[in-house]
Amino acid sequence: MIGRPLPTIEFADEASLAWGELRLVAGSSNLELARLISEETGVPLTDPRVRRFPDGEIDVKIQDSMRGHDVFVIQPTCHPVNDSLMELFILLDALRRASARRITAVIPYFGYARKERKSQPREPISAKLMANFITLAGADRVLLMDLHADAIEGFFDVPTDHLTAQKILAAYIRERQLANCSVVAPDAGVAKRAEHMARLLNAPLVFVYKRRPEPEDDESVEILDMAGDVESRDCVVLEDIISTGGTVVEVARALKDHGARHVIIACTHPVLAPGAVERLREAPVDEVVVTNSIPVPPEKRGPPITVLSVAPLLAEAIVRVHENRSVSELFR
Ligand code: R5P
């Protein structure tokens, strides 16, 4: 086991043993987040000793006994997405074969989520395929956060808990004491979430009508229209993912053209594909607030990017799942 941190969360006594002892296994996709969750819970990280064979195949060897325990594997399936997924499948298989009593895959960022439906004939539904593989590999439960589409929860044939980082983002924005804030939904897919954020910030909503004129070009974004109060307002653009940055940069430009005073982007998953940070630095954007669901390396941090931690939320949810306590209570 790696370290033995001091917990900040208190455990209920007997309930915590219903599924065996709580164990945290850190995959390699976001070790920093796993360490922070370990600090919050006081549960040390189990080292899965992930290594690669010379031909690139992944191997793991879990370093502690998992027999009869309630195991949480922390592995957002972020860049490099295919490696992160394959490592998760192999970790789940190893844990199942090691007789873990229950295995929860903690996937704060779920790669392939944007391929959750067919938009053209003869396309795959990759998000469903990944969900199938995760349960097939051995996950008894899945812990997710701000999925690109809520319906993806139903792709898993095991219990899921779907968390949101909205309260964390909203609390940070509230601290900024914006005088006259509007919440902006950059496309129809984000509308319901933006409505929730608007309630949290007690702000009116702005809807943007965005389209991708070249569906095969991931960077092509066109803003056709917007409805709502923008002039002289501090606009908070809500996003689930920033990948190329194309969407939020075009939305920010359109907002400034319509007279917005400040533009703040609030986004859960900083995918930040190559070129995105440079694009954001040059854009008419005052701040980009993201979470550490995906690691943000030091060279990508700093203005305009601020990174908030979702480790306390994930740690609390893990302990609640372990103790069979309500997770939805966290969001009431
Ligand atoms: C799209 O439906 C998503 O909500 C995001 O708007 C999109 O993934 C952002 O991608 P990009 O940063 O490449 O525009």
Task: State Rg.
Answer: 20 Å
**Total number of helical segments?**
8
Distance between the first and last residues' Cα: 35 Å
The global form is: globular
Structural classification = alpha/beta
Could you outline the blueprint of secondary structure elements for this entry?
Blueprint: E1 22-26, H1 31-41, E2 45-46, E3 51-52, E4 58-59, E5 70-74, H2 81-97, E6 102-107, H3 126-137, E7 141-145, E8 160-163, H4 166-175, E9 181-185, H5 191-201, E10 205-211, E11 222-227, E12 234-242, H6 246-257, E13 262-270, H7 276-282, E14 287-291, E15 305-308, H8 311-322
Parallel strand pairs: 1-2, 1-5, 5-6, 6-7, 7-8, 9-10, 9-12, 12-13, 13-14, 14-15
Antiparallel strand pairs: 3-4, 10-11
The structure holds ribose-5-phosphate.
Describe this structure in words.
- This protein has 332 residues and is α/β, with parallel strands linked by helices.
- It has 2 domains: 14-164 and 312-331, Rossmann fold, CATH 3.40.50.2020; 166-308, Rossmann fold (3-Layer(aba) Sandwich), CATH 3.40.50.
- The chain is 28% helix and 23% strand.
- It contains 8 helices and 15 strands.
- Strands 11-10-9-12-13-14-15 form a 7-stranded mixed beta sheet, with helices on both faces. Strands 2-1-5-6-7-8 form a 6-stranded parallel beta sheet, with helices on both faces.
- Helix 3 (126-137) links the parallel strand 6 (102-107) and strand 7.
- Ribose-5-phosphate (R5P) binds at residues 114, 187, 189-190, 218, 221, 239-247.
